[in-house]
Automatic annotation (TrEMBL):
Positions of transmembrane segments: none
Region (Disordered): 31-54
Annotated C2H2-type domain residues: 58-90
Gene3D superfamilies given in the database record: Classic Zinc Finger (3.30.160.60)
Species per Swiss-Prot/TrEMBL record: viral metagenome
InterPro entries: Znf_C2H2_sf, Znf_C2H2_type
Protein name (Swiss-Prot/TrEMBL): C2H2-type domain-containing protein
Coiled coil ranges: 100-127
Keyword list, A-Z: Coiled coil
SMART domains in alphabetical order: ZnF_C2H2
């Protein structure tokens, strides 16, 4: 009795890239080596894995956070601007708290210097003699102030009369706090007649200042009066910027206005205590009178 071997199912070799089918393994191997197969295989892989384009990065100029899309940056800038929108009163209160200890130290140091100077003068008086009379004949600052400048405006009234313009605010934005505050004060002083000014400098090197207040002239020994005036003018800059935001209620939705507000706020909110000496030096040069 003959026994027949059951027929085996032939193995099929298929190339999906070229739609090639064969039951012969050698034929399949020859097909894989053809240039046609290699070209189609490469084209298919390139289509599935296209070269990636470099991603564009959008960065916030205020806090340096990065975003993949410009829309994400736009939404972030609204929140970022709002977080920097600090009220002028808060800024002033913080700065006053920080400067209180510094002012007390300066006052104490100045008092010690005055005491030492007084002792030195007492020692020199017997030696000077008639030279004091000669010096007084050349120039007497008190006579000049009380007679020539008796109708001068007081410092407090002068500060009240100042209104910071948008041009002056823009000047501070581009040139910094020292130049900006000095510019506001000097421009308003120059509007007055020479004998109507509330402040004079008699020694640029020593920064000797005489300021009129309450109908009398006094030497600003510790520079407390001029520093208070600088703070008051700085406050007026914040009020000017606040007025601008009320006149431009859409500034948070306008990129150019957002940039103007942010950069101006950064300029006028700079630490005044670190810049007061520079501002006073600029003022002394402009209001100096020769003895």
């Amino acid at each position: 009795m003959d026994t027949k071997n059951p027929s085996k199912n032939p193995r099929i070799f298929r190339c999906t890239f070229c739609d090639f089918v064969t039951a012969n393994k050698k034929d399949y191997g020859r097909h894989l080596a053809t240039q046609k197969h290699k070209t189609r295989q490469k084209d298919t892989n390139d289509t599935k894995n296209p070269p990636q384009k470099p991603q564009t990065c959008y960065e916030c100029q205020i806090c340096n956070k990065s975003y993949k899309y410009s829309s994400g940056l736009y939404r972030h800038k609204k929140r970022c601007i709002e977080s920097t929108h600090i009220s002028s009163n808060d800024i002033l209160n913080n700065q006053l708290a920080l400067s209180k200890e510094l002012i007390m130290n300066v006052v104490k140091e100045q008092q010690n210097q005055i005491k030492e100077l007084t002792n030195t003068i007492k020692e020199l008086i017997p030696k000077v003699g008639n030279n004091i009379t000669t010096t007084n004949q050349k120039f007497n600052i008190q006579v000049f102030l009380n007679e020539k400048c008796k109708d001068a405006i007081s410092m407090s009234d002068f500060i009240k009369s100042i209104e910071v313009s948008l041009q002056q605010l823009d000047y501070t934005k581009h040139n910094g706090l020292v130049n900006g505050l000095s510019n506001v004060i000097i421009e308003n002083i120059n509007k007055l007649g020479f004998y109507q000014r509330p402040i004079y400098c008699t020694d640029i090197k020593r920064e000797s200042l005489y300021i009129k207040e309450a109908n009398s002239w006094e030497k600003d020994i510790n520079k407390e009066k001029i520093k208070r005036a600088i703070k008051d003018v700085s406050t007026k800059q914040f009020f000017a910027l606040s007025k601008w935001t009320k006149e431009n209620p859409d500034f948070q939705n306008n990129e150019n206005k957002q940039d103007y507000y942010t950069h101006t706020l950064v300029a006028i909110a700079n630490n005044k205590e670190n810049n007061e000496d520079k501002i006073i030096k600029k003022l002394c040069t402009s209001i100096y009178i020769k003895e």
